[in-house]
Amino acid sequence: MKTRFHCPCCEHRTKSFVRYIYTQTGEHIHPMVGKCNRDLKCGYHYTPKQYFHENPQYHFEPKLIVRKRSFSTQKAWSCIPFESFNESLCDYEDNNFVQFLLNKYGNEVTTKAIENYYIGTSDHWKGSTIFWQIDQDGKIHTGKIMLYDLNTGKRVKEPYDHIYWSHKFLKLDNFSLKQCFFGEHLLSDKSKTIAIVESEKTAIIASLYFIDLIWLACGGVSNLTPEKCEVLKGRNVVLFPDLKAFDKWSEQLKMVAHIANFRISNFWRQKQAMKQEVQVGTWLIS
User: Fold this and answer.
1) pLDDT tier at 78, thresholds 50, 70, 90
2) What are the Cα distances from residue 80, in Å, to 59, 129, 135, 152?
3) 18-35: pLDDT as tens digits
4) Nearest to 44 by CA among 86, 12, 7
5) DSSP 8-state symbol, 44
6) Which of 41, 94, 187, 204 has minimal Cβ neighbours within 10 Å of its Cβ?
7) Dist CA 150 CA 101 (whole Å)
8) Chain region(s) in the chain for CATH 3.40.1360
9) Rounded to 5 degrees, what angle do the CA atoms 156, 161, 163 make?
10) How many CB atoms lie within 10 A of CB 252?
11) Which of helix, strand or coil describes residue 40?
12) Which CATH architecture has domain 184-274?
C-alpha cells in the first residue's frame, strides 16, 4: 500500500493507483502517469510513452535507456518454503471459506476440494484462507490470502479489501515473485480440457459441478498473460470471463491464441439473458 495512491480518474476511496517510476532514481515520472488496478470499473492507464509524446520538452536520459535494457535478463524467482505451506493445511474450523463450503456442499465434497487445491488457513486475519499457487513441478510460487464472509461466502471488502500475499506475510528476504495459475499443479492430467476463470473461489466451486474439466484461476482480469499461459501449450482451453470482463478477455485472447487451442465462453451472458438458474449439465460453449 505504500506504493499506491488515489487514482486521479476515479478517485476511489481505496488506493488503487500505481505510478510509473524512473528505475535508476526511483522517482515518479509524473503524478498522472500510472495505472488504476480497478480494471473494469475505471481502467485508467496513462503510460510513460503517452506522457513523453504529449510532453516533448521532457526526455529520457541515455543512462535510463541503458538501465532499461538490463531488464532483458531473466530474473530468478523465489519459492515459498514447503514447511510454511504444509503448516497452513489445517485449522479448517477457523477458515471461513472452508466452513461456507461445508455448510453448502457437505463434508465429502469439501474435503475433496481441499485436497485437490491445497486450500490453506491463515491467521493474518481471523478466518482467512490461503489459495496457493503451485506449478506442475510442485514448486510453490506464492499464496493469496483472502477473507470471506462465513455465511454468504462473499469476499470481505469493508472497511477495506481483504487481500494479502503469503510471501509478504512470511517476510521472506529478497523474495522475487513470479505468479502462476491457481490450480496449475492439476495440469498433469493431460486428458481433460482446461477451463480458466478469474477468481480462485469460482474455480473451486465450478470444479465441484463440472468434474470433466480442469479448473484454473488467473487471479485477476488482467492476469491472462502470454508468460503465464505458456504452460497451456498445445492444450484445449475454454475461457470463462466474468460478465463485465468478456470484452477485455476477448482482447487478451489475441495475445495468447498462438499458445493453445483457446475458446471463449459466453456462459454468463447467456445466463443473464435467460434470467434463470443454471442447471448442472446446461453447458454452453461458444
Assistant:
1) very high
2) 40, 16, 12, 31
3) 988 877 667 788 888 899
4) 7
5) -
6) 41
7) 9
8) 184-274
9) 95
10) 22
11) coil
12) 3-Layer(aba) Sandwich (3.40)
